Amino acid sequence: MNRALFAATWISMACFAIYIVIFYGGAIPAHALDDWNLLLPDVYVKGAFVQTAAIAAHFLAGAVLLAIGPAQIVTGQRGTMPKLHRVMGRVYAIAAGVAGFGGLTYIVLQGTVGGTVMNIGFSLYGVSVIVAAIETYRNARRKQFDRHRAWAIRLVALAIGSWLFRLDYGLWLKAIHGLGHSHSYRGPFDQVMAFFFYVPNLLIAEMIIRRREPSSRSHVTLNVVTGAATVLVGTSTYLFAASYWWPHIAARLGIA
Ligand code: HEM
Q: Which atom of ligand 1 is nearest to the CA of 42?
């Protein structure tokens, strides 16, 4: 079950990464930066060079985090490819820093679509990502591997937050018809979501860090929970990909 959840998560994150590279990245050579505003208004503002560069760097760094995060977990857990783990670890830490700083620069200069609550939620998120990236790298360099592992788990839990944010919206918009969501991202659902995409992940990360061997009863519960989570990840990936990712990729590639 755990493997199924891991595979479903990896596939889903890879789909999100491909969408970012083709749709957002592809808009640059196509001179179609206005397309960035199709999902969120005013992500691109003509003439605002610094925030455009910051958010562009943040998009591409985010795609790197999505693509190599699961591979980093595999090589770290098995310890079979230490060189690859070290190289990818550096890339991952730099990408986390760029995604965090790019997002924070954008928030300071332009602000998020959802206003104060979303600014606070996303700023805390960006600072947490940067702190976790620095601590993960610093403890690896010092060979403090228990601490390195703990911070790496926190970093991955945070990084998958950006992906979970889209999946949660995908499910909510389709299954609950967007109750509490407003187009300006200032509805009650949006204000909860400004924090909900990473705070629960951090709590689960702390449980994993402090975990003892589970009893056979909690094994059964764990299997049921991870099974349900796998179905949810599959369903929400399909909903989000069919409505947003694929139509945007197809339009960029001219196959729509
Ligand atoms: C894995 C890491 C990340 C990925 C893949 C990612 C991806 C994206 C994408 C694709 C968008 C454009 C909107 C959309 O299509 O959904 C976006 C917007 C944004 N992201 Fe990120 N992001 C990541 C991390 C972060 C971090 C750490 C911050 C923290 C500061 C952040 C702050 C923002 C902001 C402020 C916006 C613009 C929202 C608005 O205009 O209101 N992101 N991100």
A: 40
132 lines ligand 1 (CB under 6 A): no
Instruction: Please give the DSSP secondary-structure letter assigned to residue 208.
Output: H
Under 8 Å between Cβ of 55 and 108: no
What's the gap in Å between 79 CA and the centre of ligand 1? 31
Q: What is the spatial distance between Cα 112 and Cα 105, in angstroms, rounded to a whole number?
A: 11
Q: What is the pLDDT of residue 252?
A: 94
Q: How far apart are CA 229 and CA 76, in angstroms?
A: 23
CA–CA distance, 234 with 198 (Å, rounded to integer)? 20
**Domain map (residue ranges) of the chain:** 6-253
Tell me, using a 6 A CB cutoff, whether residue 112 lines ligand 1.
Answer: yes
What mean pLDDT do residues 158-181 have?
91
Q: What is the pLDDT of residues 203-247, one digit of tens each?
A: 999 998 987 666 666 778 888 888 998 999 999 899 889 988 999
Two tokens at 217? 């009863």
- Identify the residue whose C-alpha is closest to ligand 1 atom 43: 59
Compute CA distances 171 → 62, 108, 165, 197, 248, whole Å.
22, 30, 10, 13, 19
CA separation, residue 65 to residues 127, 156, 163 (Å): 16, 9, 10
Verify whether ligand 1 is closer than 6 Å to residue 59 (CB atom).
yes
